[in-house]
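testing teh design pipeline on a random one, pls ignore if ur not involved
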C-alpha cells in the first residue's frame, strides 16, 4: 500500500499501531487511522484490547502524521 499510495482505513483497538515498524509504515501510507473507543468503563469488557487511555495516547502520537477518528460504537449485552 505504501508503494501505490492506495487509500485505506485502519480500524483498531490496539496501541501496537504506533510502535516500531508499524508506526513507520503508517506514517508513509495514504491512510486514515480509526480507534474504536467508548470509555474506560469498557476496559474490563474488551479483553485483549488496549485500554481506553492507551488508545487515546496512541491517537495523540499518530495525529501529527495522519487523520485520526475515534469511533464510538459499542455492543454489550448490558451497560457497564
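output:
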Amino acid at each position: 500500500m505504501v508503494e501505490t499510495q492506495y487509500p485505506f482505513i485502519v480500524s483498531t483497538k490496539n496501541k501496537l499501531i504506533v510502535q516500531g515498524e508499524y508506526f513507520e509504515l503508517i506514517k508513509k501510507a495514504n491512510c486514515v487511522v480509526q480507534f474504536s473507543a467508548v470509555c474506560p468503563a469498557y476496559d474490563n469488557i474488551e479483553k485483549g484490547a488496549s485500554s481506553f487511555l492507551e488508545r487515546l495516547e496512541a491517537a495523540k502520537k499518530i495525529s501529527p502524521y495522519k487523520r485520526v477518528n475515534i469511533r464510538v460504537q459499542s455492543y454489550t449485552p448490558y451497560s457497564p
